[in-house]
Amino acid sequence: MAAPSTAHKPRSPKSLDAQRREPVGKDTPGPLGDSFSRHTLSTGEYVVVRRTARRKTGLAAFWEAGQAVIAVPARLSIEDEQYWVPRMVAKLEQGTSAQLGRGGMGSSDEVLLQRSLKLSKTYLGARAVPVSVRWVRNQNGRWGSATPARKTIRISHHVQGMPEWVLDYVLLHELAHLIHANHSPEFWAVLAGYPQLEMAKSFLEGASFAASRNISGLEGDMDDTAEDSRSAMFEG
Asked: Could you tell me which of 173, 131, 176, 178 has the C-alpha nearest to residue 155?
């Protein structure tokens, strides 16, 4: 599903409460299945409203493959949707921002994906759009890896506990591999806008040096070249 790029100011909780006191309307039926709401995220991206007959009561807000989804009962009218959707979107974004503010360490893969999408928009012009970004425990020789053909990224659990700006660099490094598969000049040019680039590279080089003497399995080159996969125990 395509998303617009125009950003807008998110509604405040106060404005949402004021909206609740307005007349609901005349109970116009909404379409079953997935549809785009007239309300958007604070980034300007569309929100999917999922109206199903199976859901009898209550609403739910969650991320699905990087897309904000609000699940509602089939009987929820369009007028009621206009009140509830922005309220649920505000809660969803507030919850995600709180997790990202804590660095996302040890949090869900979905939060890691949202962090990556935010980094891509901030530093890469939103050119890298991964399908999934997840923590893995089977990468002892790499900080991270990417499969450009599948648009998937895996981050080693060894990165957990490192400073946030290091995690962001590892994510950006892998996001850049979705644009350029190798470490070409174009690849490094993509990363040039990240202000902690050199500091993060030095941090990881130091971590690799220490690991080669104290922790089995972390020594070696930063990248493991494969036909469809690029990894990041970064050389550079």
From this structure: 173
Q: How far apart are CA 212 and CA 225, in angstroms?
A: 20
Residue 34 pairs in a beta bridge with 50
The Cβ-side half-sphere exposure at 130, using a 13 Å CA radius, reads 32
Q: How far apart are CA 222 and CA 11, in angstroms?
A: 44
Q: Which residues are 72's β-sheet partners?
A: 51
Q: At what angle do helices 197-214 and 164-177 cross, to 10 degrees?
A: 100
> Cβ(49)–Cβ(34) under 8 Å?
yes
Do 133 and 155 touch, CB atoms closer than 8 A?
yes
One-letter amino acid at 181 equals A
Give the dihedral of Cα atoms 156, 157, 158, 164; nearest 10 deg. Answer: 90
d(CA 47, CA 168): 26
pLDDT along the chain (236 residues), means of 10: 34 39 58 83 80 84 77 87 86 67 58 89 93 86 91 90 89 96 94 94 85 51 44 45
Q: Which run of H or E residues covers position 50?
A: strand 46-52
Question: In whole angstroms, how far apart are CA 65 and each of 68, 69, 109, 117, 152?
Answer: 9, 10, 10, 11, 11
Rg (CA), the chain: 21
Cα dihedral across residues 138, 108, 179, 220: positive or negative? negative
pTM, entire model: 0.54
